[in-house]
Amino acid sequence: MNLKDKTMSNDSTKASDNIEKGFFRASAADFKKIPGSPIAYWVSDGLKHAFECGKPLKNIAVPRQGLATMDNERFTRLWHEVSTDNSFMFSENLDCKWYSYNKGGDYRKWYGNQEVLVNWKNSGNEIKQLSISRYGSASKRVVNEQSYFLPSVTWSKISSSKPSFRFQPKNAVFDVAGMSLFPNEGDFPLLLMLLNSTLVLQILRLLSPTLNFEAGQIGSIPVIEPMKLNALIYDGLVTVAKSDWNSYETSWDFTELPLLNNQPDDVGLRDKAANPIYPLPLSIKETYSQLRAHWQEMTLETQRLEEENNRIFIDAYGLQDELTPEVPLKEITLTCNPHYRYGNNKNAEELEVLLLADTLKEFISYAVGCMFGRYALDNPGLILANQGETIADYLKQIPEPIFSADDDNVIPMLDGDWFTDDVTERFGQFLKVTFGDVHYEENLKFIEQALGKDIRKYFLKDFYTDHLKRYKKRPIYWLFSSPK
Fold it and tell me: What percentage of the chain has pLDDT greater than the value 70?
């Protein structure tokens, strides 16, 4: 439709009557009801009513921009690049150099994307001095410092598809791209549930058609509080998203591998090793099958809760004739959900093949972590994660390990079994300790079928490539190789 085909009327008309034989009637007064007065001919009466009757979100919690470091290479790191004793998330020592830094990140709802640190030693003195030298003032780039370290609702300023909002716990600095708002404690459920609803997507298409979600646009979202807000939905969605995020070793709150937390009883591995009378461990195939069923339940329950959340706000805004509550599986942003993790251009069988292979690669990665003493089967979480730590430091924490760490911090990766501490030999020992001798050959065959190659070839050809990808080219372990 050309511009000459459009006429504007000062009369208020219903959306259903707007299109009349080449004309599109709209009220100039209606445009003024929407912040920024966008020329949006398609806006419905329901959305106009929301802007007329709703309270601007900024009246409940003001969205804010955060810190701009001016030099991310100098002032930021991925969390696993620094020593835990110099990282506030692990030591809670106020003299630490590195603090959690919320930079937005990928499309993920409810919880997650916590992986970057910022140098905030001495209240960010180095960053402030750089800002003063460049701009004459620290506050030119250290913005809204009074809100640093407060719990927040956060989102990514720039999105390639849809916006996603997350709960950010306390003790984080927030970035100019990881924009945030800071509700009173009791308002977190209302705002996070609203912002992740399909309703807000419709509103933001009106306020920000470019997918650039600035503080002003988020602050202009009209808030109509439902008659009855079910906070259990909020708790359920955040809890599941947090559990999913922390189930992978790339999270700083990772404690144990889900695949190793699914045996038939609650007896620990040490007790099983000491006591010959205990239920036989499940095979790795059986264990994965149970874990996959659990992940499927998590995904479907998250989908159910999100759809219920959508219904609540669609009803509150009176938009039942315009919006539906359904959420496709690809938008359930859990890493254990293959529809989200791998995209939507693969069939169900292909998705299952990818998820199984990656789950077993994560098992192998964890096994190598146990070989190096980064993890231990005896204790949850990180064991050795600081430069200069030795096997003596490991044994202080794990005096009698069920599966011991390598004593010289060097593990050969060879095409033959010439060393007893070769990575393939050590992995075989780890597999026996975790899933028992009785299933060993069956388990090894299952792993190799999922990988599409034998385990030695995987270590030689693929392991380090996968390691670099997992840690975003900031490796934990280093590969030294010689053609001879």
Answer: 87
